Amino acid sequence: MTDTERSKKRVREAKAFLFDFDGTLVNLDKLTVDSFAIVFKEMFKLDFTRDDFMKYISGRGSKNGIVEYLEKNGIKGFSVEGLNSEFYKNKNRLIEERLEDEIYLLPGIKEFLENFKDKRRRVVVVTSSRKEHVEKMLTHFGIYKYFEEVFDRSTVVKGKPDPQAFLNAIEYTGLDVEECVAFEDSFYGLQSAKGAGLFTIGILNEGWNDDFVHKLSDFVIEDYRELI
Question: This protein's superkingdom (predicted)?
């Protein structure tokens, strides 16, 4: 049996799917980088890059990343809550501006969810994004109906890469970890899923996670239809 066949079998036999959101269901990473770049440029004259996003923020939540990034650049005395609020204001504005042209679902996700919808699987989101933001985007793309719950950063004391978020989701399903499969794309998110003991499907986003997704995942896909 090949790796692909083994992974498809594991997915078919799973009783729960635990999905990250940004970069796993919807391609929001570039927009998120732009949102942070606007805030850091306006407030501190810093040039926030994609590499900074991947190092400090991707997959782990904005507040911890803001603190580490600014302290690394020698900046103190800032309001994390205030900066986080500005970030979300910019992100919401950019979503409204770019929703029709630049934001889309990851390839094959709608077909994947539709294929498994009648097979009694528990399907939840485990994310560092805000719940209301996730629900709005899932509703816009017509896939919110496939998910029964969204676990956001507010549901845990320790965010990703700590496994608590995924462990909470597993507990919610009432299933054993071996009966669940996680879908992730970020460095910290993959660490979180593996730390929880989950079989993990990595979502390859070329140019964003090429250097670690294969190392941290049990199997890697570019299109969810590969698993149908």
Answer: Bacteria
Full set of structural domains in the chain with CATH: 3-27+104-227 (3.40.50.1000), 29-98 (1.10.150)
Q: What is the average per-residue pLDDT within 146-160?
A: 89
Residue 36's CB is within 10 A of a number of other CB atoms, namely: 25
* Interatomic CA distance for residues 21 and 183, integer angstroms: 9
Provide the phi-psi class of 20: left if phi over 0, else alpha when psi is between -120 and 50, else beta.
beta
Is pLDDT larger for residue 156 or for residue 90? Answer: 90
Residue 60 pLDDT exceeds 80? no
Is the Cα dihedral 168, 172, 175, 179 positive or negative?
A: negative
- Which residues 6+ apart lie within 8 Å of 75 measured at CB? 44, 46
Which residue reads 């149908």 in tokens? 228
CA distance 78 to 46: 14
